[in-house]
Structure formats: structure tokens, C-alpha cells
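Deliverable D2.4 — example input (C-alpha cells):
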């Protein structure tokens, strides 16, 4: 017996697949329903919704761009949201904003519409616009965890610390195990120097959550290390990026001081040569001695696990030594490194890149300073410049050489694969200039300082205010204010460089 409505059985099957989040099967079912009724607006939208959840954003745009929802307001809102997000995810930002605003205007009280518009502005690097929508929406929907969380994250990006703290705490009051809210609150506190609060929330950091298998409802279990660790083996596991792993190594001496037998598992194999440095000699186990009690711990949990004395302290970077032999070899290979002129290491970009073009989520992990402005400040100085920038873009090196003169520029962008060679190279420098990267951690261990440009919001190690960071006292900090350009920090950087280094005659 033929079905009463052509394609209905396929559409009902699509509804079931969609409810079960089986998006590929849902799309196939809706596509078959549309073969029977090509002009069915609802089925076409649901096919597009299935494509969106499959990550096929360009196909979603192609299917939905000319769909007309008619007088169905609910469908019109959903259509504008799905199409707007798909346009955003394919880099069509102007059209995306238009559709997301349309969804919001159709119903300003619609939580999803306000949320998506806030996400759009956050990811477009416009957190103040996001705050405008999210503040009103969170008041209209006081029990919405995601609105409070996104509001807090964007307030932090705007430098509104107290308001960000309040919004993130509101999210946690509604959902105490909200990992992202804890993570962001940790960064807020640590940037302010509220270390005791910061490390408590840092235990919820995203990578630790992922390490634990990303369970839905998860509470971190950080061990409390006793003051006397004699007879204990502490198995420390490195984590996160190279810079992070170097940073948390500064807590290892506290374990040695308590009498622990410390065993360290590197996260980043490139750091292996470090373990033969004198500062890490206590890692070598005493022959034949096996501690009866073993405590496993992630490196990033050490500040909290070590207790109050370390929770509120700023331990110095682990002291490092460069190979004199390697240094001499480098100076022979690159005479610029043996020059009597002062030498500056230069890097203008560091961190992770946005997942999608023009997206600025997790901006504290994406550090970029204007290269031309840096070159304008370096040009009049009587210094050699060692380019330490990883992943040089086409023509960047040529641009630096043209601006400063090729004779005073050394391309060391690829000398980062061998840590011992990199330490030897850095030991030839008088300082660093640019954004923070792994070289800052290594230079801190070598006792070399410099000038760091800190984008807003600051990475927590550079804190929210101050001319110096207690984590890296040898570095002058030049801060970009939230929502501002680089004019002010470049002015203070210029003054610092002029006071540190001679100018050309």
C-alpha cells in the first residue's frame, strides 16, 4: 500500500536518525524524502542540519542559501542560525553576521540566537560586541550555563576581570563540573597573581580533562604531597607544550628538597637533552634503591600538590647550561655570533593558530606582534639580529634582511630541532625581543633576559599588570591593552631598547 504522503516514511526515519545523532543516516533519509517532495522546506532544512552536524559546512550553505522558510518563525530562526554558522565556518563572515543578526532580531529572547551571535563575535575577535549580546541574554536566561560561561570568557578577553570572575562563578554555581569555566577562571586568577585560587581551578585544565579520558562528569583528583617525601617515589609526567613543560619543571627542586626519589616522563622528546643537565641530576635514582611508595602526578599539578608554601610562590626557572663546545662550533659556522656587537634574538609570532581563518578563540595561545613595527625599532640600534621565528612565512626573512641589512641578520629559524644546539645559540645572545615562546623559558634558565610584547589577554605567566612578571624577572613586559593596538607597548619597547642597546652612529 503506497504511503499517504510521498517521502513521509523516509522523513520520519530521518527524524529518528537525527534524534539519535546518526547524522549521515539522517541526511540520506531526508535526501530520499526530498526526491519525492523536492520543495518540502522542512525536510530540506533538516537535511542541511544533518550536513552541518557532519561538518560539511560548504554543502550546508549550498543546500540552504536559497531556502525560504515563509511564515514559520521557528523555522526561520533555525534556518538563519544554521546557515549563519555554516557561512562563518566557511569564511564568509559578512553574510554569516547578517543571518545570525536576523535570527536574533526575529526573537531577541531566543537563547540559541543570542548565544550564536555571541560566539560569532568572540571568534571574529570582537569580544566587546559579544558581551553586548551575552549580558542581556544571561539576564533573560539566568539558568543558562553556556550564556554565563561565554559571557565570562568574553569579559576576560575585554580585560573586565571582576565581571568575568562573577560570570564564570555563576556558570559554576549552575554546573560545578564545567571544565571550561574552571579553566578560564584559573587563568583569570593566575593573571591577577591569586595563585592559591588559580591553581585550584587549574586542576581542571582542558588537557588534564582530555588526559583523564574526557568523561562527561569529571572532578580532578590532585594528590596532596607530604612535607617529608623520604621513602617516596614521585613519578612526574610532563604535559602540554614545550614551554609549559619547561615552566613546570621549576617545581622539581621542591620534590628533591623533600627527599623524594623523582622520576620524570617527558611529554616532549625534544627536551630529552635537558635531563643530562646538572640541575636534573637528582632525577637519577640511587643504584639498587627502590622507594616503597610511588605517587604519580602530572607536572601541571605540582604547584597545588606541593601545598601552601609552593601554591603561593614563584619558583625560579631551572638553571640551564650551554655546551661551550657547541657554542664555539656555532660561532665558527656563523661569524655573526662571534661579533663584538650586541646580539638580539627576534620572534614576532608564537602559539597555536586558530582552527578557522579569522577566528580568535583562546587568544592567549595566539601571540602575534607587528613585524614592521619591531623592525622600525631595531633598525637604528647597533646590534646584530638573530631571527628565531619558527615557521617563517614566504618573504618574511627577505623582508627582515631588506629592512635591517642582510649582513646584520642571521636566520636561525631552523635551529630549534636540537635542544643542545639551541641552548648554545641562545647563550650567544644578549637578549630577546618579541613575543613569548619556548626561547623565553630557555633564556630564563640561562640567565638571559629581554623585552617581551604581551598581547591582550595576557598569558597567565605574564600576569595582568606590571612592568615585569615574577615568573620571569629578567624580562621587561610591554603590554597591549584589551581592545587596543600596539602603539603604547611599542613606545615602551622603544624606550627600553634605546636604554639597553647602543644606536648606530
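Example output (designed residues):
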Amino acid at each position: 500500500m503506497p504511503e499517504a504522503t510521498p517521502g513521509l516514511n523516509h522523513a520520519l526515519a530521518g527524524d529518528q536518525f537525527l534524534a539519535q545523532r546518526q547524522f549521515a543516516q539522517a541526511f540520506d533519509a531526508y535526501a530520499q524524502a526530498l526526491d519525492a517532495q523536492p520543495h518540502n522546506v522542512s525536510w530540506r532544512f533538516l537535511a542541511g542540519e544533518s550536513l552541518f552536524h557532519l561538518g560539511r559546512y560548504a554543502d550546508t550553505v549550498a543546500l540552504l542559501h536559497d531556502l525560504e522558510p515563509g511564515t514559520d518563525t521557528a523555522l526561520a530562526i533555525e534556518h538563519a542560525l544554521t546557515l549563519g554558522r555554516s557561512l562563518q565556518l566557511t569564511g564568509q563572515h559578512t553574510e554569516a553576521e547578517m543571518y545570525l543578526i536576523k535570527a536574533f532580531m526575529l526573537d531577541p529572547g531566543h537563547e540559541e540566537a543570542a548565544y550564536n551571535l555571541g560566539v560569532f563575535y568572540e571568534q571574529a575577535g570582537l569580544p566587546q560586541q559579544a558581551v553586548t549580546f551575552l549580558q542581556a541574554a544571561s539576564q533573560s536566561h539566568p539558568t543558562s550555563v553556556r550564556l554565563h560561561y561565554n559571557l565570562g570568557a568574553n569579559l576576560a578577553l575585554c580585560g573586565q576581570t571582576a565581571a568575568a570572575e562573577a560570570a564564570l562563578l555563576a556558570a559554576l554555581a549552575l554546573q560545578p563540573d564545567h571544565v571550561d569555566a574552571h579553566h578560564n577562571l584559573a587563568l583569570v586568577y593566575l593573571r591577577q597573581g591569586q595563585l592559591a585560587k588559580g591553581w585550584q581551578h587549574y586542576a581542571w585544565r582542558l588537557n588534564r580533562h582530555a588526559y583523564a579520558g574526557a568523561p562527561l562528569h569529571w572532578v580532578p583528583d590532585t594528590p596532596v604531597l607530604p612535607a617529608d617525601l623520604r621513602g617516596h617515589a614521585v613519578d612526574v609526567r610532563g604535559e602540554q607544550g614545550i614551554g609549559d613543560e619547561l615552566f613546570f619543571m621549576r617545581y622539581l627542586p621542591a620534590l628533591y628538597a623533600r627527599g623524594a626519589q623523582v622520576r620524570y616522563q617527558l611529554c616532549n622528546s625534544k627536551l630529552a637533552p635537558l635531563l643530562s643537565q646538572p640541575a636534573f641530576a637528582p632525577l637519577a635514582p640511587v643504584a639498587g634503591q627502590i622507594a616503597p611508595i610511588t605517587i604519580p602526578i602530572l607536572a601541571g599539578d605540582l604547584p597545588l600538590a606541593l601545598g601552601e608554601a609552593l601554591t603561593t610562590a614563584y619558583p625560579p626557572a631551572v638553571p640551564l647550561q650551554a655546551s661551550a663546545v657547541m657554542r664555539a662550533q656555532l660561532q665558527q659556522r656563523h661569524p655573526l655570533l662571534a661579533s663584538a656587537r650586541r646580539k638580539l634574538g627576534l620572534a614576532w609570532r608564537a602559539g597555536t593558530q586558530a582552527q578557522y581563518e579569522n577566528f580568535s578563540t583562546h587568544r592567549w595561545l595566539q601571540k602575534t606582534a607587528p613585524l614592521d613595527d619591531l623592525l622600525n625599532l631595531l633598525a637604528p640600534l647597533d646590534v646584530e639580529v638573530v631571527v628565531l621565528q619558527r615557521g617563517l612565512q614566504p618573504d618574511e626573512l627577505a623582508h627582515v634582511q631588506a629592512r635591517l641589512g642582510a649582513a646584520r641578520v642571521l636566520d636561525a629559524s631552523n635551529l630549534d630541532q636540537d635542544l643542545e644546539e639551541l641552548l648554545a645559540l641562545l647563550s650567544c645572545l644578549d637578549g630577546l625581543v618579541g613575543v613569548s615562546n619556548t626561547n623565553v623559558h630557555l633564556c630564563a634558565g640561562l640567565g638571559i633576559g629581554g623585552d617581551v610584547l604581551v598581547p591582550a589577554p595576557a598569558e597567565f605567566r605574564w600576569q595582568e599588570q606590571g612592568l615585569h612578571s615574577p615568573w620571569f624577572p629578567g624580562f621587561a613586559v610591554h603590554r597591549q591593552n584589551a581592545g587596543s593596538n600596539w602603539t603604547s607597548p611599542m613606545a615602551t619597547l622603544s624606550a627600553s631598547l634605546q636604554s639597553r642597546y647602543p644606536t648606530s652612529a
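The radius of gyration is 27 Å.
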